[in-house]
Amino acid sequence: xxxxxxxxxxxxxxxxxxxxxxxxxxxxxxxxxxxxxxxxxxxxxxxxxxxxxxxxxxxxxxxxxxxxxxxxxxxxxxxxxxxxxxxxxxxxxxxxxxxxxxxxxxxxxxxxxxxxxxxxxxxxxxxxxxxxxxxxxxxxxxxxxxxxxxxxxxxxxxxxxxxxxxxxxxxxxxxxxxxxxxxxxxxxxxxxxxxxxxxxxxxxxxxxxxxxxxxxxxxxxxxxxxxxxxxxxxxxxxxxxxxxxxxxxxxxxxxxxxxxxxxxxxxxxxxxxxxxxxxxxxxxxxxxxxxxxxxxxxxxxxxxxxxxxxxxxxxxxxxxxxxxxxxxxxxxxxxxxxxxxxxxxxxxxxxxxxxxxxxxxxxxxxxxxxxxxxxxxxxxxxxxxxxxxxxxxxxxxxxxxxxxxxxxxxxxxxxxxxxxxxxxxxxxxxxxxxxxxxxxxxxxxxxxxxxxxxxxxxxxxxxxxxxxxxxxxxxxxxxxxxxxxxxxxxxxxxxxx
Length: 497
Known about the structure:
Layout lengths: L6 H31 L5 H27 L9 H18 L10 H33 L3 H32 L4 H26 L8 E2 L3 E2 L22 H8 L3 H31 L6 H26 L1 H19 L5 H15 L1 H21 L4 H29 L27 H11 L1 H14 L6 H27 L1
Antiparallel strand pairs: 1-2
């Protein structure tokens, strides 16, 4: 395992990350508003879709991660799953932003149509994201190189994701008079770009040589020949079952703290993203403000990346995450009481500057947790670890958007009459086309303000408990190397007998 990863592979890893970032940005900013105000699902139905999809991911992500770890093909462990994800993602994304074939009057048909599309998108995203993320700990074991690798992933991913997001934003804005057409065109263009990203990554990225099956040698052994497994699942007794794999993963305390960090940070961002269009429309009074706000946030996130990488090397990962998370908490809390456009721009600059930390630091911490597991168990199981990581990401979306929609429903949110089948002549002259009651407006303010701020504070609290520092990791690698040497020496002595 080389301590330095070739730049070409870093770029390809970033292109693969573009798929996750593109999906996160486009669905994060647009999907909730589309389902509520264009597809005209009730807030309760949207919450139901999110909850069912979250329960589906409870099995989907860890299972695909485990299957990926145990895949044996001449194309490697990860690349076949990349190809499967590449086939599912574009079609599911396009159909998700397309009108239901059951029409507007069949509420049950609409519900199941969008639920099926969402689950298809989830499976495709899981297949691809697990494959890309599992390659990171296989490429390098250097503590700082992993931060560099994560920065390439996020930099390229965010640039390409931003391009896709702006394409969708412009198509939706250009078809304001026919919102359904704008979203459908956006789904087609972005889905096509997802297909290109996936195919290029699949054909050109390289896996570790130990991940390939040879017709002469068979599948090259990935597990270390050292380590103490539990009695029921040792390296010598064959691979553990799926449930045993899950139980072993959940015994990794460092990883559990990382999961807490990962659950809180993206949950905060998802709540903020999914409610931003409603905030622009109903609080700021101009839905078209979403375009400059996205430009500011994503632009500042990209420009701030070198700053956070430098701080991570200088101060450490925990300090860096705390600085970013607490900064985000302060900026988002300020949005709760804001109605000023200028102040909103200033706050978005601050949010964009700190945003990248929520993803950069957890990404670079994940391989360290996998090596801690290798030291304890003697096995490398990147797939299931990344599977749980992806599962937590989707759970954050489930609870964030599902919970937000339940709150909107409880406060009496009403879909806009001009886009959800109410004839204009049926609207009273004194009745505004797009208006919400006071309680709903307060909930929208909270969903972009104090709610994400609270989650950012919880993430900062969790990161303070994360145990793997740079010195700890260096010592961990030394101990792993010693065990490997001892195991190799033991095998050599056995061969001489």
